[in-house]
Design brief:
Layout: H1 2-39
Length: 45
């Protein structure tokens, strides 16, 4: 049972490291997508 906890901890640590390392580029990509979506907004009516 402790093996599963260890694996879960390692996966969580890897996710935190990956997000902090790539956080800036992910944020920039989301901002780019948002700006493109705002430029192509349509209204239904």
């Amino acid at each position: 049972m402790t093996e599963y906890g260890l694996i879960l901890g390692l996966v969580a640590l890897a996710a935190v490291v990956a997000l902090t390392t790539m956080g800036g580029s992910i944020s920039a990509k989301f901002n780019e997508i948002i700006s493109k979506l705002q430029g192509t907004s349509t209204t239904n009516g």
